């Protein structure tokens, strides 16, 4: 990045933001919840508030493939065969990201781990870096209200910002609040796909809640509450307050 082309005001704003973050806890946080539970809505706020790097598994794999990294080449070969990328590759991507300046204050993981085995492998990698997962936030939502959430979801592809046509609409219909770029509805945001994803979530991901509960780092968020109330619960969880 050429700093000469950045406006002085923008540079000082970023410096001020990072300075304010030094007053807040450095943490590694995992978001767990079914599709449509609100993780995509809340993650950008958590990221900005604590100066964490937001690592979503799908985005990491796409970036690695497009950049042609060694792990990206391995992932592309596997995905081209139609196979699932191994846990080791995903953890390798997380490991590599942790060496970047953007991740020096901690990670915000979304989409990984999905199973208890993955959770154990992640813990092992972090242990060898003398780090650990500090908080796991479970976004709890009843299955029967998720379809409305999913079918109304709209996404800004470049940033990952998520909106909802009813519950969290953009200021201008169909465009991102910050960039003015168009929002999309993902092809898999429909009831049929949701039911399959919910079955996979309950079969595979839910058991890892007990794994983190036994470590006393699991915080359950009532993700059916209003957005500002969900934000308050997250804030209280991060700062270890009782609610």
TrEMBL record:
<dbReference type="GO" id="GO:0004017">
    <property type="term" value="F:AMP kinase activity"/>
</dbReference>
<feature type="domain" description="Adenylate kinase active site lid">
    <location>
        <begin position="153"/>
        <end position="188"/>
    </location>
</feature>
<comment type="similarity">
    <text>Belongs to the adenylate kinase family.</text>
</comment>
<keyword id="KW-0808">Transferase</keyword>
<dbReference type="GO" id="GO:0005524">
    <property type="term" value="F:ATP binding"/>
</dbReference>
<dbReference type="InterPro" id="IPR000850">
    <property type="entry name" value="Adenylat/UMP-CMP_kin"/>
</dbReference>
<dbReference type="InterPro" id="IPR027417">
    <property type="entry name" value="P-loop_NTPase"/>
</dbReference>
<dbReference type="InterPro" id="IPR006259">
    <property type="entry name" value="Adenyl_kin_sub"/>
</dbReference>
<dbReference type="InterPro" id="IPR033690">
    <property type="entry name" value="Adenylat_kinase_CS"/>
</dbReference>
<keyword id="KW-0418">Kinase</keyword>
<protein>
    <submittedName>
        <fullName>Adenylate kinase</fullName>
    </submittedName>
</protein>
<dbReference type="Pfam" id="PF05191">
    <property type="entry name" value="ADK_lid"/>
</dbReference>
<dbReference type="InterPro" id="IPR007862">
    <property type="entry name" value="Adenylate_kinase_lid-dom"/>
</dbReference>
<keyword id="KW-0547">Nucleotide-binding</keyword>
<dbReference type="Pfam" id="PF00406">
    <property type="entry name" value="ADK"/>
</dbReference>
């Amino acid at each position: 990045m050429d700093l000469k082309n950045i406006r002085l005001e923008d540079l000082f704003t970023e410096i001020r933001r990072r300075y304010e973050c030094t007053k807040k806890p450095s943490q590694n946080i995992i978001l767990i919840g079914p599709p449509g539970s609100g993780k995509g809505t809340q993650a950008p706020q958590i990221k900005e508030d604590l100066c964490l790097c937001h690592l979503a598994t799908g985005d990491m794999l796409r970036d690695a493939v497009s950049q042609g990294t060694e792990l990206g080449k391995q992932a592309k070969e596997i995905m081209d065969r139609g196979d699932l990328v191994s846990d080791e590759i995903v953890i390798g991507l997380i490991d590599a990201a942790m060496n970047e300046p953007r991740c020096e204050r901690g990670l915000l993981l979304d989409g990984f781990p999905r199973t208890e085995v993955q959770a154990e492998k992640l813990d092992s990698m972090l242990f060898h870096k003398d780090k650990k997962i500090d908080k796991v936030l479970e976004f709890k939502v009843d299955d029967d209200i998720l379809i409305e959430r999913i079918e109304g979801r709209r996404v800004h592809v470049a940033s990952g910002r998520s909106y909802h046509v009813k519950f969290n609409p953009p200021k201008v219909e169909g465009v991102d609040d910050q960039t003015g770029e168009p929002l999309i509805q993902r092809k898999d945001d429909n009831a049929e796909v949701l039911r399959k994803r919910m079955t996979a979530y309950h079969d595979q991901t839910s058991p890892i809640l007990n794994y983190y509960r036994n470590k006393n780092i699991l915080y359950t968020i009532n993700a059916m509450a209003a957005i500002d109330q969900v934000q308050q619960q997250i804030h209280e969880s991060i700062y270890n307050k009782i609610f």
